[in-house]
Amino acid sequence: MKIIGIGKNYVNDKSEIEAIKTGFQTIFVKANSTLVTNNKNIPFPKITNQLVYEVELVAKIGKQGKDISLEDATSYISEIAIGIDFTAKDVLTKSRDKKGPWALAKGFDGASPVSEFKPVSDFPELNNINFDLKINGESRQVGNTDMMIYNFAEIIAFVSSYMTLEEGDLIFTGTPASGVGETAHNDHFQASIEGELLLDFKMV
Question: Does pTM top 0.85 for this prediction?
Answer without folding.
Answer: yes
